[in-house]
Amino acid sequence: MDLKRVLDIVEEEVVDGDEEELASPDAKRRRTLLNSSSMQEAIGAQYMQKHLPKLEPFLRRVVQEEVHNVLIRHIDSAHRLPLQLKTSSKRYKLQFQGNLPQTLFTGNRVEAENKQPLRIVLTDAVNNQLITSGPLSSMKVELLVLDGDFNADERLEHTEKEFSESIVFEREGKRPLLSGEVVIVLEKGVGSVRDISFTDNSSWIRSRKFRLGARMSRASSIEERVQEAVSNPFLVKDHRGEVYKKHHPPALADDVWRLEKIGKDGVFHKKLADFGIHTVQDFLRNLVMDQYGLRGLLGSGMSNKMWESTVEHARECVLDDKLYSYCSGHGIILLFNCIHEIIGVVVGSNCFSVNALTATQKALVVKLQQDAYKFPGRIVEFKVQSQSADQSPTAPAPPGPASAQMPGIPPQGGEANPQPQDHGLLPLHDAALGLEDVLHQHHHRHHHSEPWITNGFDATRDPFDMLQFSGPSQPCGLLLSSTGARL
Q1: Predicted confidence (pLDDT) per residue in 326-382, tens digit
Q2: For burial by CB atoms within 10 Å, which of 171, 180, 282, 308 has the most?
Q3: pTM score
Q4: Tens of pLDDT along 196-230?
C-alpha cells in the first residue's frame, strides 16, 4: 500500500479524535494551565500512546513491500552483472615493461629504472600472453601524461572515459608536456620508447606527480577496444635541480648531502662538515663507531623519522673490498672493512673470522674494538704479503707467560723454524690468496668447530687481564700499510 495514503488515513483519524478530546471542559482547563510547549509535548505523547497500535501494522506492511521490491531489483541486477562484465571486458591491453624512476628531470630522456630502455607491450588481457601477430601487433600507440592520482588503487581495469579525464595538458603559454617521439609503432607487439622528455615539472598539479600513459592511436582504424597502459607515479623536477639529486644507491665517495634529508649547505650538512664528516663513507664510519654520538650531533632538528630515512639510504651504499687493520699492542690485530665494521682477527700468522670465535674471545675482541674506535686514526689500510720460502722467519718473541699469546697459538720459542701445528687454522703464509678469501674459506671450514684451544693460554684467568698479553708484542708479520711499511 502507498505510504502516503496510509499516513493520510491515520492523520484523519487522529485529527477527529483530537478535536473531540480538546472540546471537553477538562481539556479547556488544562489548556489554560499549560504553555504552548508543554501542550505540544503532552499532545505528542498522548498521540503516540493512543494511535501507535493503529499505525504499526500499516508501517510493517509498507516496510515489507519496500524491502521486497529492493531485493527483487538486487537479485535481478546480480543476474545481469556477469553478462555486463563479459560484454564490457577488454580482450587486449597495453603494458609498460619496467618501472620509471621515482624522480625524472625536465629535458632528460625518459628511461626505466637502472637506465634500461622503456618498452610497451601488447598482451592478452586474460592470460597475459604477448600478441605477436595480427593487425594489433603492429598498431600505432600514442604516449600521454596522466595525473599521478589516477588509478591510485592500482585497479586492473579502467574505462576509456576515466583514462581520458585523467590526461594532463600543458600549462597556458607552455610547450606540450612531452616532446620527442610521442607516437610509436609496435613491432610484433613490442614498442620502444626511444626519445621523449618532459618540458615542465609536476609541482603545479595537486598530486605533484605524473604518470605516463599509452593508448591506441586515435588515427587507427582498428575497432577493437584495447586497455590503456599506465605507468607508476613519479616526480618531475626542473633539470637545474639535477645537480643536487640524491643517488640511489649512494657511493662511498659521494658528498654526505647526497643522503636523504641532508640538504646541500643546509643545517645538517654544516654540522657534519664541522665534525669532519664530508662523504657517505665518513657518515657510515661514524654510524658504526658511535651511532648515538652521530645522532646527537644532528640534534633535535632532525626527527627520528628523518634520521631513519637518512640511515636507511646510507646503508644502501655498495662497499668496496678494501680492508683495514688496527694493531692492538697485545699481538692481536683487528681487521675491519671499509666502514670500520670488524670482520676478523689476526694473531701471529693466523686469521680468524669473528663468527669462529668463542663467547669469551668475542668479548675480548669487543673491548679491543672499542679501544680502536677511540683512535680511528690508527685504523689503516693494509695489503697482504705472501711470505716466500727463502724469506727469513720473523724472530720469535721470548718464551714465557709474558709473551703475547692467544688460545690455539703455540708458544713461540725453541726451534728456529718450528713446524706449524694443526690447530684447525689457515696460516696466511701457506695460501697465495687475499685475506678476504682466507677469511671466507676459514669461516666455511670451521664454523662448526672451536678454532682456539687452551694450549699456551691460561683459560682460568680473566680474559680481560691484559697481563697475559703483555710483554713484547707479536710482530704483525704479513700486514703492510697502504704505504708498504710493515705494521
Answers
A1: 998 777 899 999 999 999 998 877 888 888 888 998 999 999 999 999 999 999 997
A2: 282
A3: 0.46
A4: 999 999 999 999 999 999 999 987 777 788 999 99
Cα–Cα dist 478/394, whole Å: 10
CATH class of the domain defined by 92-240: mainly beta
Return the domain boundaries, the chain.
3-86, 92-240, 246-314, 324-481
Between CA 142 and CA 163 the distance in angstroms is: 13
Q: Are 229 and 118 in contact (CB under 8 A)?
A: no
Q: Angle at CA 45, nearest 5°, toward 39 and 47?
A: 95
Contact indicator for 156, 133 with CB cutoff of 8 Å: no
Q: Are 261 and 268 a contacting pair, CB within 8 Å?
A: yes
For the stretch 381-421, pLDDT in tens is 976 554 444 444 443 333 333 333 343 333 333 333 333 33
